[in-house]
Amino acid sequence: MQYGALCWRVKNGRRQILLITSRETGRWVIPKGWPMEDRTPAGAAAQEAWEEAGVRGDVASVPIGSFLYDKVMSRRKNAVVSLRTRVRVFALKVRALEKDYPERKQRRRRWVSCSKAARLVREPDLAALLRAFEDA
């Protein structure tokens, strides 16, 4: 189980989602990571949003949904070892987007509409969650 942050803002009366690139493949994802001993699930999601995207904001205490993806654990010459992983997603209203954050040199970030975010991500369940969030 991992915890993810659906980072959002309202611009021109419409919700926008902040997507980031994964470090290995460059695909568009949301900030996410493993549980942390000293944090609640929502707190872990907020911490990942800070480390991976430079986001400061208000995180919801209850998840808005979840999705499955294949987490690559190791790559070898002729094999990829992956683990099917569920991500519980917490909405995080962005108050500030910092320029200086831990993974700034490893990722790109991009604001997009909910519908565009749904088209950019590869995980079908995450895409469905993004489409539902637009209408919520």
UniProtKB/TrEMBL annotation:
Alphabetically sorted, this entry's keywords are: Hydrolase, Magnesium, Metal-binding
> In this record, what's one Pfam family?
NUDIX
Q: Report domain Nudix hydrolase positions.
A: 1-134
Q: Which InterPro entries match?
A: DDP-like_NUDIX, NUDIX_hydrolase-like_dom_sf, NUDIX_hydrolase_dom
Does the keyword section mention Transmembrane? no
Q: Which GO terms describe its cellular component?
A: cytoplasm
- Is the Magnesium keyword given for this protein? yes
Recorded GO molecular functions are: metal ion binding; pyrophosphatase activity
State the source organism's domain of life. Answer: Bacteria
Q: Which cofactor does it need?
A: Mg(2+)
Per its record, how is this protein called by name? NUDIX domain-containing protein
